[in-house]
Amino acid sequence: MYLVSACLAGVNCRYNGGNITNIVIQELVKQGKAIAICPEQLSGLPTPRACCEIVIAENGNRKIATKDGQDFTKEFVEGAEKTLAIAKVIDVKKAILQSRSPSCGCGTIYNGTFTGNLKKGYGFTAELLIKNGIEVYTENDLDKLKL
Fold first, then answer.
1. Residue 69 neighbours by CB distance under 10 Å
2. Domain boundaries, the chain
3. Which of these, 132, 41, 146, lies nearest to 85 by C-alpha position?
4. How many whole angstroms from its chain centre is CA 5?
5. Which residues are paired to 136 by β-bridges?
6. DSSP assignment, residue 60?
7. Would you say 19 and 29 are in contact if contact means Cβ atoms under 8 Å apart?
8. Which residues contact 16 (CB under 8 A, 6 or more apart)?
């Protein structure tokens, strides 16, 4: 069983109200081989919602905020924790998450300047899953998985 980002499975849950359907991932869900989640929706954030990126707070810690500085760290942490709880209940070993996202990004995320530039890093959910022994991939890594 895989855990997958709901937006990749065709659910309109992205910050802008849309999705980025990946046919392979959508088919995994249809076949019952994957469960689709959206950490942001799990935390109660609406869809659509403000665009967020991981930025460095004045105290040096990472936080998730909008371009105008509104802090959504609490919600993103809550969404990550709820996602992990679901993963544990269904004994997930692998996740396929949306690349670049402040929740789901794995290896590369937006750099916090809201300019579309990327940097090495992990979204809050991806990082928590990895710390708990779950292998995390993005939609760009499907060739590495034997689906």
1. 8
2. 2-49+72-108+120-144
3. 132
4. 6
5. 95
6. S
7. no
8. 48, 51
Tell whether omega for the bond before 48 is within 30 degrees of 0, i.e. cis: yes
Measured distance CA(52)–CA(4) in Å, rounded: 20
- Residue recorded with tokens 């065709």: 10
Annotate the chain with DSSP letters as a single string. Answer: -EEEEGGGGT-S-STTS-----HHHHHHHHTTSEEEE-HHHHTT--SS---EEEEE-TTS-EEEEETT--B-HHHHHHHHHHHHHHHHHTT--EEEE-TB-TTT-EEEEE-SSSSS-EEEEE-HHHHHHHHTT-EEEEGGGGGGS--
Q: What is the pLDDT of residues 35-89, one digit of tens each?
A: 999 999 999 999 999 999 999 988 999 999 999 999 999 999 999 999 999 999 9
Quick one: tokens of 88? 């544990």
For residue range 113-144, what is the model confidence (pLDDT) as tens digits? 999 999 999 999 999 999 999 999 999 999 99
Q: Is the peptide bond before 102 cis (omega within 30 degrees of 0)?
A: no
